[in-house]
Amino acid sequence: MPKIKEVQEKIKNENLNSFFFSSQANVFYLTYFHSSNAFIILTPSQKIFITDSRYYEGAIEKLKDWEIILLGKGGKKGIEHLKEIIDHYGGNKIGFEKDKVTLSFYEKLIEGNLKERLKGYEGFLDDIRISKTEDEINIIKTAVKQIDNVFKKIINEIKECKTELDVRRKIINYIFEEGGTGESFPAIIASGKHSAIPHYETSDSPILWDNFLLIDMGSVYKGYCSDFTRTLILGNVDPELEKIYEIVKEAHLEATNIVKAGIPVKEIDLKAREIIDKYGYGDYFIHSTGHGIGVEIHEPPRIYKESEEILKENTVFTIEPGIYLPEKGGVRLENIVVARENGVEVLTQTPLDKVIIR
User: Of the residues 297, 300, 305, 349, which has the fewest C-beta atoms closer than 10 A?
Assistant: First the structure.
């Protein structure tokens, strides 16, 4: 369940009367209720959920211990009504997510008597969201299992696919078949030299044989994301490409082996880079080693050499080193792991061994 009491305690410790949440991700995190137009006001003792008529009845049904307010009731203009609600419940010191609002929304929000009462924060819930509960981890485990199963199905049908988009269509169908509610991001299907572009946009380009096929995909289950990457060998590839596959695999395993709650986050990234540098491919590892994951596909912490964070227990994150050779091909191998007190728990069960399709 959401860590409401922990959030309310933080509001109190920040010497705030309330906090106004407007981002969809944080509104969902605090309620497990999906809405494209909803806001929350939390005080140390109150929980107020604000939404429009499209979601109002659903919120009343699901959020039994919240005060539900209909936004725009009586024909009031949405933003003006919202400001009235904040004015009424917020108190004199109101925190808000300055990193999650548009300039236009902020300018409208501070018109009137709220400007001097608002205090902006960046990442207000990051330190709470970063360490998952066992309930959250179990949901993510299911999302990970779903995407593992999708991969098992996909590799048996690659020969039927003519284009990158053909593969993505199958992935989407299988995500629903496995019980997911959709993609956690648009799947990346990168054939041949496209695999050397880390965030390539899947296209109608043909699947090329005697090349790599990189598949980066994820599903959503109960609002939580999975993320998964494997690089397939179609036919016979250049010996250098086979070589970098084994290097990335070694880097992945070495980085995974040092994961443990309490270590500096940067050590994971540095370990992966150490392996890739050893073989002379350091210049071709061009992104961080991983990222946190939860109700959003990218959450703190960033697993990078410049991080000053300490890895918290029950942080769920990806490990995904890669080597990308321009105009030739690239390899990325990605698992989701959990930092435990005594070491690492790897959630992704698909092996890292080469998958060769001929």
Answer: 349
In contact, 128 and 312? CB cutoff 8 Å: no
- DSSP code at position 34: -
pLDDT band at 253 (very low <50, low <70, confident <90, very high): very high
Omega before residue 300 within 30° of 0, cis:
no
CA distance 121 to 159: 51
| Strands across the sheet containing 188-191 | 188-191, 211-217, 228-234, 356-357
Alpha helices in the chain (DSSP H): 4-13, 24-31, 56-62, 78-90, 103-109, 126-129, 134-155, 164-177, 239-257, 266-278
Tens-digit pLDDT profile for residues 133-182:
999 999 999 999 999 999 999 999 999 999 999 999 999 999 999 999 99
What is the DSSP pairing of strand 356-357 with strand 228-234?
parallel
Digit-coded pLDDT (tens) for 89-116:
999 999 999 999 999 999 999 888 898 9
Question: 126: which 2 tokens?
Answer: 């990051």
Residue 93 tokens, joined: 């010191």
The pLDDT tens digits for 279-316 are 999 999 999 999 999 999 999 999 999 999 999 999 99
What's the Cα-to-Cα distance from 16 to each of 8, 91, 177, 178, 325, rounded to whole Å? 10, 8, 46, 44, 51
The Cα 98–Cα 116 span in angstroms is 14
Q: What is the pLDDT of residues 319-332, one digit of tens each?
A: 999 999 999 999 99
- Spatial separation of the C-alpha atoms in residues 136 and 28, rounded to whole Å: 13
Q: Which domains does the chain have, with CATH numbers?
A: 4-129 (3.40.350.10), 134-357 (3.90.230.10)
The average pLDDT across 77-85 equals: 90
Segments in 192-335 forming alpha helices (H): 239-257, 266-278
Is the Cβ–Cβ distance between 58 and 33 less than 8 Å? yes
Residue 12 has which token pair?
């109190």
Between CA 13 and CA 213 the distance in angstroms is: 51
